[in-house]
Amino acid sequence: MKKNIISKSLLSLTTAALVSFTVSAQKNYQVDVTKVRTDVKRGHLDLGGRSVKGDTIGVNSFYLEKNGKPFIPVIGEFHFSRFPHQYWDEELKKMKAGGITMVATYVFWNMHEFKEGKFDWTGDLDVRHFTELCAKNGLDVLMRVGPFDHGEIRNGGLPDWLYGRPIDVRSNDPAYLTYVNRLYQEIGKQLKGLMFKDGGPILGVQIENEYQHSAAPWGFTYQDAPRENTVAQRDKNITQIGVGINNVGNEFADVGKDHMKTLKSLAIKAGLVAPIYTATGWGYASIIEKGSIPVMAGYAFPFWESSIRPSPFYLFKDIRQKPDYSPVSYDVNLYPSLAAELGTGMAVTYSRRPHVPGESFLPMMVRTVGSGTNGLGFYMYHGGTTPSVGNYFFAEGFGLHNKSYDYQSPIGEFGKISSGFYSLKLINYFLSSFGNDLAPLYTVLPATNDAIKADNATTLRYSVRTDGNKGYVFMHNYQDHLVTSDMTGLKIDVTTKSGVITFPQTGTFTLKAGSSAIFPFNTNYDGIDVKIATVQPYTRFVNNSKPYNVFVSIDGIAPEMVFKGKVKVSGTGIKTTMREGNTVVAFAAGKINDFQINGVSFLILPYDQALNAYVVGTKDAHLVISKSLVLEEGQNISLTTTDATSIELGVYPAVNKITTSGNSTAKVPSSIKNISQWKLNVSKIESNIELVKTDDRHFVLKAQNVDWTKMNDVSITFDYRGDRGVCMMNGELQTDNLYTSAPWNIGLKRFAEALKNNEMYFYFIPMAKDAPYLSYLDKEVVPNFGDKKEFLEIKQPQISVEYKVNVEFK
């Protein structure tokens, strides 16, 4: 069979990267949504279930249902085995604060059965404890049980001891299935009582990964030797490296489907019974036909590709009918579209080092949801550090990090929050609060959409999700590897069954470079009919039995809401008028506005304020606004901040009093009556970290005198330009950093015990003039080598103290 596997993500583009455009194309856009399809097929899938509590999960051809109502899961990948178990609870709280509702995690077989027949489920491998903590924090779980995982782990998670045996891995070879059955049985014992049917948090189980699509290299190899992959012998010619496109199909598809069905049967017999089963759907991978949801992916900055060109993953499409990395092996009309691996970050190799900017995250998600996806999954959402036994590394090797799995994620290797975390909250919270309204709505694309290519930044990128009458307009102005310009003078007409909706009703709007927006029309919020809004729904919560709806104003777009008919409005910072028989509420741009209609409260936040807004609490929830990270602690909160000794926060609806332990608090004036503003003063703490530079590339860290009880963490940031940095202690590699244009941050609290009696060493290697990765770096950080063959620059390292303050509402 001729091998014709393409893994270039449709990048048949000719425009060079980083091209700037002047926008002068069409500005008045029209889309007719009156002929949208609204059909949903039910009862044809072997999925769904009921818990002992009476809760139900259902799956139809278009969306998921919880207790009979549509919902859209927001899935964040976090590998428990890549993070110290002592801090799992805090990290899960960070994920919840970011709007994650379901945690996806891998069970890496080779870590749990390092020695054949001896399973380890302790410490950082305690999958049961991790799952219980997810439940404690109100997070659902998608358990990815393998046996093959990949995840940039040695052998893709298959144990070393399988290598060389007369066993055809990832097939129905009876010997292989015997080992897989033993693995599943062990996982089932660990998770007994934690499945959804038992009232536990595990709603989903993923079977295998990228089956008959991709593989990992066996860790047993020799330099310059042909690569051996973890794949059944028959599948060698249809298997590729990384996520990509398969244009040749699969002559062994029936055998592959049978293997996936066999694995699911083994999982069920082991007690891994869940209402949702997932399997990789992209690139012609084999799924469990009618017994799993095919999940999708999208990576705009992949390390496995040699090209550096604009990707198609920012172009709106009907993603259910035409999934990314098509063609696929299944009938798209039978399943909802769910994404499991949208690239919120990326691993790097020595020779290929894509730098993934945080501002790339939100526009991709707006595009993906606007294209019809009814489940978002981020890979990775939380980075980590790949374990090792001494200097035996579980990492995949082949140029990847030996230890670090930071992945440039929203939450990094040591729990540090990155910029992408904040912007993702805007869509995560939206889906959590309004997903029940959005999920049944189909995607309609404007006629202008067909002509847009990845290198075209002059035509507005937008779509509508609708039932023909109500809906949401999705738009963005971002493209990877291009510089976009502000799009001015825009207007969109949406023809619905009940008439034409115009965004905006008067004048035009500007969609600024890099920005995005989701605007509703003909929607209803707690009984209040909204005709049109040029503010974006953010979140909804209930406090004292009263509903609160929060919206976001977008810079460059005049914020207003048009309510059906004449309604009585009272509030702060608003202007109310009548237009065509409807009530128009206009807001002061760049400021917080609040108002009430018939007992329902609405709050309008400027974009920058929304980035720092968190919903906390359940029965009587509040919105907390602070530049500090806000974590939910039962009905109270904790605030974490780096280096700042003064913390400001706003609480909505207002509270009379807050208390903290050992910190002074003061109430400050607020421009909004229903928001109480507070200022907390935190006593400054000296880290007592000693960092000594011994020569141009070595540092020695001493921390014997640190009182770790006084602070939440201490971190070291090296702002350097070079080839790589390594961190050593006790003769073992602790973590490593392949330079990707950004500073290197290392959190120290996980090393606190070892640092009492040991020094930590940092070693930096210069960047070579002919380094293969230079074209992947941001242009401004590539040095001028001149007549030198190498370059190394290390600015003064920064030592930062992270404070944590517990706050109780009164």
Characterize the structure shown.
With 810 residues, this protein is mainly beta. The protein is built from nine helices and 55 strands. The strands form 13 sheets. It has an eight-stranded parallel barrel. An eight-stranded antiparallel beta sheet has the order 20-21-22-26-27-30-33-32, covered by helices on one side.
Annotate the secondary structure layout.
Layout: E1 5-6, E2 28-32, E3 49-50, E4 56-59, E5 64-66, E6 69-71, E7 74-78, H1 88-97, E8 102-106, H2 109-112, H3 127-136, E9 140-144, H4 174-190, E10 202-206, E11 245-246, H5 253-269, E12 276-280, E13 293-298, E14 338-343, H6 361-370, E15 376-382, E16 384-385, E17 388-389, E18 392-393, E19 404-405, H7 419-438, E20 442-444, E21 461-466, E22 471-476, E23 487-496, E24 499-503, E25 509-511, E26 516-525, E27 528-533, E28 536-543, E29 546-553, E30 560-563, E31 570-572, E32 574-579, E33 582-587, E34 593-597, E35 600-606, H8 607-610, E36 613-616, E37 622-626, E38 629-633, E39 636-642, E40 646-652, E41 658-660, E42 664-668, E43 676-681, E44 690-695, E45 698-702, E46 713-718, E47 720-721, E48 724-729, E49 732-738, E50 744-747, H9 752-755, E51 760-765, E52 767-768, E53 790-791, E54 793-794, E55 798-809
Parallel strand pairs: 2-23, 7-8, 7-15, 8-9, 9-10, 10-12, 12-13, 13-14, 14-15, 29-35
Antiparallel strand pairs: 1-11, 3-4, 4-5, 5-6, 16-19, 17-18, 20-21, 21-22, 22-26, 23-24, 23-25, 26-27, 27-30, 28-29, 30-33, 31-34, 32-33, 34-35, 36-37, 37-40, 38-39, 39-55, 40-43, 41-55, 42-43, 44-45, 45-51, 46-50, 46-55, 47-54, 48-49, 48-51, 52-53
Helix pairs in contact: 4-5, 6-7
